[in-house]
């Protein structure tokens, strides 16, 4: 096996940007991954490329990397399965992402009208902090970290990347809250924008790569278990109307800024 196959994706794409362009043509966005530590040979573990296109893709990757046509690595990925729609628990997570993306779309408006000198102005930003902590993190990310990810080897790069994103997001939110209390306009703007950028890419990686990959690994029994556990979280671990409270918060901001209802990035 050529040495390039064992190199981290980030290193391969940095040395040969054309490899990233080839991958994007096959719906693989590894070039934009925040860590990129997965080996080149392992990309099909996480991305479902049709069998009839795999040989063509590897040949093009080899040419782009200056190696000549590469043969698909044996045993690097399970056979592609017949496509099926997203499972109910995954649909639930994607729906929660939609509400989070509505907040991300509002952040530029919040920053354009940033006011830390009045109580209403500070309350607006702290309302966004509350949404992120209690909906995006405690309500949504907890389903991933405490339930979904436990069905997989959590040392795998793809899961490590997601958890590192969650940790970085929490640090941004903590800094935003501190900035509000200190009336630090620059810190609030920088950290809230950094959060928006991080979560936009994070959600895309989950919707386009992580969730489809996990769905392909889960059997019907485990999907049923996940669905039941998610329902118990929604019904038992959060007050009635918890999700609705945060949807109403987003709707109020959309109305306040004159945004179209449901606008996302």
Description:
The chain is mostly helical. It folds into two domains: 3-64, Orthogonal Bundle (SP0561-like), CATH 1.10.3910; 88-257, Four Helix Bundle (Hemerythrin (Met), subunit A), CATH 1.20.120. The protein is built from ten helices and no strands. It has helices at residues 9-15, 17-25, 43-46, 51-64, 88-112, 119-146, 157-181, 185-217, 220-236, 242-257. Helix 5 (88-112) runs antiparallel to helix 6 (119-146). It is globular, with a radius of gyration of 21 Å.
Tell me the layout of helices and strands.
Blueprint: H1 9-15, H2 17-25, H3 43-46, H4 51-64, H5 88-112, H6 119-146, H7 157-181, H8 185-217, H9 220-236, H10 242-257
Task: Looking at this protein, list some descriptive labels.
265 residues; 0% strand; SP0561-like; mainly alpha; Four Helix Bundle (Hemerythrin (Met), subunit A); 67% helix; 10 helices
- From the spread of the alpha carbons, the general shape counts as globular
Mean pLDDT: 87
* Domain module count: 2
CATH architecture of the largest domain: Up-down Bundle
Regions with pLDDT < 50 over 5+ consecutive residues? none
> What is the succession of H and E elements?
HHHHHHHHHH
Radius of gyration: 21 Å
Q: Which structural class best describes the helix and strand composition? A: mainly alpha
**CATH superfamily placement of the largest domain:** nmb1532 protein domain like
Query: First CA to last CA: what distance?
Result: 41 Å
For the sheet with most strands, the description reads: none
Estimate what percentage of residues fall within beta strands: under 5%
Number of strands: 0
Helical stretch count?
10
Query: Which CATH top level class of the largest domain fits?
Result: Mainly Alpha
CATH topology of the largest domain: Four Helix Bundle (Hemerythrin (Met), subunit A)
């Amino acid at each position: 096996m050529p040495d390039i196959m064992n190199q981290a994706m980030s290193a391969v794409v940095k040395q040969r940007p054309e490899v990233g362009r080839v991958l994007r043509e096959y719906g693989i966005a590894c070039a934009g991954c925040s860590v990129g530590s997965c080996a080149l040979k392992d990309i099909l573990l996480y991305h479902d490329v049709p069998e009839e296109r795999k040989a063509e893709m590897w040949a093009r990757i080899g040419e782009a990397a200056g190696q000549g046509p590469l043969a698909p690595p044996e045993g690097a990925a399970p056979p592609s399965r017949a496509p099926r729609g997203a499972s109910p628990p995954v649909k639930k997570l994607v729906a929660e992402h939609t509400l989070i993306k509505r907040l991300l779309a509002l952040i530029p408006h919040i920053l354009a009208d940033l006011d830390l000198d009045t109580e209403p102005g500070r309350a607006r930003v702290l309302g966004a902090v509350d949404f992120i902590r209690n909906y995006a993190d405690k309500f949504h990310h907890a389903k991933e970290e405490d339930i979904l990810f436990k069905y997989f080897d959590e040392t795998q790069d793809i899961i490590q990347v997601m958890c590192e994103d969650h940790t970085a997001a929490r640090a941004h939110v903590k800094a935003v809250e501190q900035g509000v209390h200190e009336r630090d306009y620059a810190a609030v703007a920088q950290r809230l924008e950094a959060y928006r950028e991080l979560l936009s890419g994070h959600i895309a990686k989950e919707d386009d790569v992580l969730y489809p990959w996990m769905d392909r690994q889960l059997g019907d029994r485990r999907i049923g278990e996940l669905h039941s556990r998610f329902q118990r979280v929604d019904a038992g671990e959060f007050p009635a109307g918890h999700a609705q409270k945060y949807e109403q918060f987003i709707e109020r901001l959309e109305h306040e800024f004159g945004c179209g209802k449901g606008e996302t990035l």
